[in-house]
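Thread: acetamide complex, take 2
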Amino acid sequence: MKIGFLQFEPLFCQVESNLDKLSSMIEKAPDFDLLVLPELANSGYVFSSKSELVKASEIIPDGIFVEKLSEITKSRNSVIVCGICEKKGADFYNSSVLIGPDGFIGKYQKIHLFDREKLFFQPGNGPLISYEVKGMKIGMLVCFDWIFPEATRVLALEGIDILAHSANLVLPYSQTVMLARSIENRIFTITSNRTGTEKNGGIELTFTGQSQITSPKMELLASTGVDTEEIKIVEIDIELARNKWLNERNNVLLDRRSKMYSKLLK
Ligand code: ACM
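Output below.
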């Protein structure tokens, strides 16, 4: 199984040029089964008005991003996860889409909004579920969801092998934390982050790059720099994520003492 990330710098509100750049990067990429793209890959991140969201968002699955990415996954018999600025009625969601060899499969709406995202997006409704495609069980989260271990745990209990984590990270912690998410759930994680600095409406943010792939044994299988724009693919043995035993007596899912965790549901 070949899985990877694409790291690039989306240009703010330049939907068509972002799509062109992604398409030409993917065209040159080696074979892959699953490729994860960054959060808000169509729109960029630093919004200062709703009119910018109107301009840069799309209805899922009828927009140009999902349409073009579906052409790619069909022609390459592959799966892509991509962060999309979603328009739904009068509302906007920070979403991810899962697209396979037969086209659009499903979407995830970010459930934990970060900082000023709360001014522009609705908190999403997930869902936190596993999708089985091409022999992989895939779950989606978006960026700041990383700081809530419950979200990844629910996906692990749903049976995912691989967490597709589309990101626009600005804090320096997530890359380290995802190693823990991998070992505590015995899953692969793919964080696809963006690069660059965006300035708009008096706000300036610099994104941390360093996209990466982690293994169920807490190995860093691939990573890249802060500013690089590139695709990295690694070959994995997906069966590793289906063995939840750490040793003869400890299983990271079966050993849970859920009665002791009732406060988590309050
Ligand atoms: C983030 O959730 N985009 C920081």
